[in-house]
Amino acid sequence: MKPATTALALTGFSLIAVTYGMARFSWGVMLPDVAADMPLSPQQAGWLSACSFVAYCLTILTAATLANRQGVRLAALLAALCATSGLLLLACVSSPLLLAAGLFIAGLSSGLASPALAAAVSRRIPSVTQPRINMLINAGTSAGIILTVVVLSVLPGGWRSACLLFALLSLVCLLPVMRVLPVHASGRAASVRHGYGQLYRRAMRRLMGIALVSGLVSAAWWSFGPALLRQHVSVNAEAARLLWLVAGGAGILGVATGPIVARIGLNGVYRLSLCGMTLPLLVLAFSQGESSGLLIAVACCGAGYVTLSGVLLVWGARAVAEDPATGVGLLFFMLAVGQVVGSLFGQLYASLGAATALTLFAVSGLLLLFMLPDRESRASDK
What we know:
The protein is mostly helical. 82% of the residues lie in helices and 0% in strands.
């Protein structure tokens, strides 16, 4: 890759690592330790998880407009600052209300980051290379998750100290963002409005439906995974963290999906990643204790989600080619809406039990195998 392309890819990878992996998905692995300091019911844990997803929903669409009118650099800077301030608040909380506020502010960061980076890639990278760079940047989520587990395992002071370190890393991201990302706005307000008009096209509506259900299913693992491992599967705290690390590490495989896409197409990768994300929920539902099957299941879950979100990113950028930030924003908005609804998993967990709740979510995901983009999207896949 050219130096400018490499710099943009690494900057985007780092920003996604702190905004998604640390500011957003770290909550799942910290939840058991937070609950030990501040007792939380499954219902409260579900509503707290929803705070991050709601914040994401509020920013993911407006971020495209911000990036186009004020420049992608400003949107990315705001993403890093929201991650920093939200994580700092989490490190100091003393009540569930402050927890909710910290998660909400931190959740704003990921909603700002994805559309801004999609716009930067569309402006700076040749179209033939864009899917590979977008996949690479998207895999930053896994790097953030890996670092989250390592830090929580070795850093004295527990989850509060970890949040302070994550806040510092988010602040450091300001430097490459200021040096690499373009500062000038594109001035494409009309383009943004046209992009939202894509809502009325059949292809975009179908993609949004896929993103909605995908988000719902993913919430079972990414919001409640560590708690399920410890309370339902009955593994100890260290094993739960190791399994979370495996899930995050497997997500790095999303970087290598380019050659697979070249062989089987985006629809084929979509099917594989969907199975990887949903079938492990059935394994979790009926597992007891540590096993090789459980290890494979969590690895598939991590790889499946990161790859599926990368496929949605590429589809969104293609569906609204004249304004990729808006296309990505629309699909990631629906992904987040699904995750907000999926936070109700906590209610099902408390009332029906983990096995029933996991089975219902897995079946919902598998139904997506029968819901593919229409011919218009498939044509762009070839």
